[in-house]
Design goal:
This protein is of the alpha/beta class. The protein has helices at about 40-45, 90-95, 100-110, 140-145, 145-160, 175-185, 200-205, 215-225, 240-245, 270-275, 285-295, 315-325; strands spanning about 1-10, 10-15, 25-35, 60-65, 80, 125-130, 130-135, 165-170, 190-195, 210-215, 230-235, 250-255, 275-280, 305-310, 330-335. Strand 12, helix 10 and strand 13 (about 275-280) form a beta-alpha-beta unit. It is globular, with a radius of gyration of 20 Å.
């Protein structure tokens, strides 16, 4: 069986891997669709190893076999991969901080004992069955493949939930930024502005519910003096960490969602003067998958508007390279590993 893996800097290959088998605590899933995440592209560009277990982590599939001691799923279930519930036994869980469960976190980042040797860029995968979440028939396969990034976005918004009269900026309108924007709109907000240099993505932001979509230059002109209440930093590049603080009001909140490569230069004086609250959002917790699935089935979050095209496993290396050279060439590319 072939699996798509990052094997070096700017090197993506289809590698022969063993057929997965159900081990105790695991389930084997037939992959229907797998989305290309920005993290996969970062891994492709990086000069350091990229964990194979998370190379392709936005997927939907059907359970074909389960191992011993699996009770939450069965053969025939259509599922997505997420994060296991809090274990209840680690130090964080015992301290009533289940959102930071060590066991669940290790599974999410592919560092747990049941981590697979490859991700969802493959026809089949075996992984910890507790990470599987069922999806209703109301969601198409294409939509279900984007439940995982939608859960990332909802988790971020719930970290700094807007009030009904807030002005919220979403800085960067890639897939996560566009999903954050829709989750903000679904939860309710006074004014919602997207900041994005690419004209096509600004149009997507307006279609996704933004009241306005402006360039970074125009954002400085509009918000440098009287900042927004909340800025979601979704661009994921080092310079925008400070610009997010520049655009928020005194006492406002900046939520770092995008993962910037390398170090960012900040101006501590502006952070101090503004008494700004800067927090970070990574991943999700188990119950947020059910919540975002409800938002999607109710039509409040439209993931299909992000979908540009679907490629085969053999077309995947070229698609990864294209996104690495120009992230604006597509918003969301899905992979059908059965083609």
């Amino acid at each position: 069986m072939l699996a798509g893996l990052v094997t070096g800097a700017r090197r993506f290959e289809l590698v022969e891997v063993p057929e997965p088998i159900p081990r105790p605590g695991t389930a084997v899933v037939h992959i229907i669709r797998c989305g290309i995440c920005g993290t996969d592209v970062h891994g492709f560009l990086a000069n350091e190893p990229y964990n194979p277990a998370i190379c392709g982590h936005e997927w939907v599939g059907v359970v074909t076999a389960v191992g011993a001691d699996v009770h939450n799923t069965t053969e025939g279930d259509r599922v997505v991969a997420g994060i296991a519930p809090a274990c209840g036994a680690c130090a964080e869980c015992r301290a009533n901080r289940g959102a930071y469960c060590v066991s669940a976190f290790l599974g999410m980042v592919g560092r747990d004992p049941l981590a697979p040797p490859h991700g969802g860029f493959a026809p089949r995968i075996s992984l910890d069955a507790k990470r599987l979440i069922g999806v209703p028939g109301a969601l198409s396969d294409d939509a279900a493949a984007m439940v995982e990034p939608a859960a990332v976005a909802l988790h971020a918004v719930l970290r700094t939930p807007p009030r009904a009269d807030d002005t919220v900026l979403v800085q960067g309108c890639g897939p996560i930024g566009l999903l954050v924007l829709q989750c903000v709109r679904a939860l309710g907000v006074g004014r919602l502005i997207a900041i994005e240099p690419d004209e096509r993505r600004r149009a997507l932001a307006l279609a996704g519910g933004a009241d306005d979509a402006i360039s970074p230059h125009d954002a400085v002109a509009q918000f440098a003096r009287r900042g927004a209440d909340i800025v979601f930093e979704c661009a994921g590049i080092a310079p925008t960490v400070q610009s997010a603080v520049d655009l928020v009001r005194r006492g406002g909140h900046v939520n770092l969602v995008g993962l910037a490569s390398g170090n960012a230069t900040v101006s501590p004086g502006s952070w101090l003067i503004k008494e700004v609250s800067v927090i970070a959002s990574l991943g999700y917790v188990h119950h947020e998958f059910g919540e975002v699935i409800n938002l999607m089935t109710d039509g409040l979050v439209d993931v299909l508007m992000l979908h540009d095209r679907t490629v085969s496993l053999h077309e995947l290396p070229m698609a990864i390279a294209e996104l690495a050279d120009n992230t604006s060439v597509a918003t969301k590319i899905l992979v059908d590993p059965q083609r």
